[in-house]
Amino acid sequence: MPDCIETAPRATSSVPVHPCDSNLDRLYHYEHFHPEYLASLLRDQRIRCSNPARLNDPWDCRPWFDTKCLSSATVRKEVIAWFLMLDLGVQAAEADLENLERAAERNPEILERVTNNASRNAFQMFVADWCIYCLTPRPSSTLMWSHYADNHRGLCLEFATDNELFRCAQRVVYLSDYPVWQPHTLLATRIEEALLTKSDDWHYEEEYRVVARRSAAGGRAGDRVLISEDGYLAIPAGALKSVVVGCEANYDLVLAIVKHYAPDLPVRRVVRAPNQYRLAID
């Protein structure tokens, strides 16, 4: 069973990262219904995380670093020192830093170009080394059944949060303005901020995420980040509480698969509430 990574205390950040609320006892995951995957999930007791490259929000997990901050001499020096550390693997000599600072003052577009390249490379790093499992406390959202559960033909998995996996779920932060991110602070100390920050256009989802990374991934992670080498996470015993079937899904087929692999697991069904624009769960 994966454990949360123990790390140094978190650095101060402009974007708060929230752990799973202590009074939130259930979280739900919407997904398409693929009989083979459901069977393997129940048989092997593990869930498949999402690759950042496959998310439907074009800003999600794609941090773009702010170049306006480079006009500050202090920030400019910190950024140059961080880039040199990445390149050399050791702290740069003060004389080398001063020479590069003077060069950056004369030709600011050079450091801007390097910073923009770091933005592009950051996303590729997330794709290669990080993954997420998306959750919500809302199992009867019409929009989420439409967007994430194949137009109500899919499933919603119900999980308890009183276990080592889902206690690590962190609340997504929704912002109206794009955050001011700098490469030397975000990637070095609070890398999961970019995995847990979205536009407030998505606030209705009330999303939580379990964040996982490969053991060899760079950057310092928070203490609620898990390790996954293959994009899967083991489900703790008893954490999966039910399978909820969409109102347009093949209920009988889902029921047959669940009863074969997990005969004691409840299977519930979404129904349209009579004379209301609302879904209910039987």
Q: Can you tell me about this structure?
A:
By secondary structure, the protein is an alpha+beta fold. It is built from seven helices and 14 strands. The chain has helices at 35-44, 73-88, 94-106, 108-129, 142-148, 183-189, 251-261; strands spanning 18-19, 26-31, 46-48, 130-135, 155-160, 170-171, 173-175, 197-199, 208-213, 225-227, 232-234, 240-245, 267-272, 279-281. Strands 1, 4, 6, 9 and 10 form a five-stranded mixed beta sheet that branches. It has a five-stranded mixed beta sheet with strand order 2-5-12-13-14, sandwiched between helices. Strands 3-11 form a two-stranded antiparallel sheet. The longest helix has 22 residues, at 108-129. The protein is elongated. The protein starts with 17 loop residues before the first strand and ends with a strand. Residues 1-14 have low confidence and may be disordered.
Mean pLDDT: 86
Cα distance spanning the termini: 32 Å
Number of domains: 2
Contiguous helical run count? 7
Please tally the β strands and state the result. 14
Structural class by sheet pairing and helices: alpha+beta
Note the beta-strand portion: 15-25%
The biggest sheet, with number of strands, parallel, antiparallel or mixed sense and barrel status, is: 5 strands, mixed
Form type? elongated
Element-by-element helix/strand order: EEHEHHHEHEEEHEEEEEHEE
Radius of gyration (CA) equals 22 Å
Instruction: Detail the poorly predicted runs.
Output: 1-14
Layout of strands and helices, then pairs:
Elements: E1 18-19, E2 26-31, H1 35-44, E3 46-48, H2 73-88, H3 94-106, H4 108-129, E4 130-135, H5 142-148, E5 155-160, E6 170-171, E7 173-175, H6 183-189, E8 197-199, E9 208-213, E10 225-227, E11 232-234, E12 240-245, H7 251-261, E13 267-272, E14 279-281
Parallel strand pairs: 7-8, 9-10, 12-13
Antiparallel strand pairs: 1-6, 2-5, 3-11, 4-9, 5-12, 6-9, 13-14
Helix pairs in contact: 1-7, 2-3, 3-4
